[in-house]
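REVIEWER CHECKLIST
Item 1: Sequence provided? yes
Item 2: Single chain? yes
Item 3: Sequence as submitted:
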Amino acid sequence: MIGEINFGGVFVPSIVIWCCISLILLLLIKRILAYFGFYRYLWHQVLFNFCIFVILLGGIVFLVNLA
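Item 4: Structure as written out by the authors:
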């Protein structure tokens, strides 16, 4: 799925949709990790969250390109 997605006549790049899905998954993962107290063991929470976002985005792009 390379290119754009049509939303009511507006073409949106597919990477924007993938980033939105990754962000939603990241928010869920952050909530779970905060609930279990995982963040107190990290040196840099923002860097960790960014890395998780990049991993999720890469996984989504990989899975979409397999189809």
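Item 5: Key structural point noted by reviewer: The longest helix spans residues 14-35.
Item 6: Recommendation: ____
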